[in-house]
Amino acid sequence: DGGITQSPKYLFRKEGQNVTLSCEQNLNHDAMYWYRQDPGQGLRLIYYSQIVNDFQKGDIAEGYSVSREKKESFPLTVTSAQKNPTAFYLCASSIDSRSTDTQYFGPGTRLTVL
Amino acid sequence: AQSVSQHNHHVILSEAASLELGCNYSYGGTVNLFWYVQYPGQHLQLLLKYFSGDPLVKGIKGFEAEFIKSKFSFNLRKPSVQWSDTAEYFCAVNKNNQGGKLIFGQGTELSVKP
After folding, report:
1. Which of A13, A85, A92, B48 would you call most buried, defined as having the most Cβ atoms within 10 angstroms of its Cβ?
2. What are the strands, taking DSSP E only, across chain B?
3. What pLDDT, on a 0 to 100 scale, did the predictor assign at position A58?
């Protein structure tokens, strides 16, 4: 069953702690993306990766970090420097990073920082 | 700032009513346009996209969208909605020279009353 998995579905952390969100895809896609979804603001791009061992900042990268050591995995770390980390985080992938490519989304992780 | 605007935050319709959701963008040059949909409890998925050719694009489930370059618009339409169309709809844009970097609108929540 091909697709994108994100875990966990819900995550709770104390303020000041770093937390890592998992994203795995078995679609053999080269490009992967992380978005943040807030009510009334749509989705905003945090980081994206066009190929293994490469990634670029999106529009709201401050307070976040990523790695892309394997093609199928693109974990996102929400650091203590992120001022407002409570949000719904969506991971996506596409065949490659052409601008016409369809992006396929995972189910999301809802992070709540207490 | 470059942006994507969806005019309606929440639309409520009765079954069989016609639907039009507005989307405007502020980018110059060549763009690619997408509508994504998020049904309750499901992943965000592609409804339709436009990148060249006929400006009237047909998507899944009877949806269509028209690209009007002079108006910087890509409105989504459906002649007769069903209760199962209840979802959140997102317009997204990227520029041809920016790879997979999508800029999303704020989203429109559609509620269809049976």
Report:
1. A92
2. 4-5, 10-14, 19-21, 24-25, 31-38, 44-50, 56-58, 64-68, 73-78, 87-95, 103-104, 108-113
3. 94
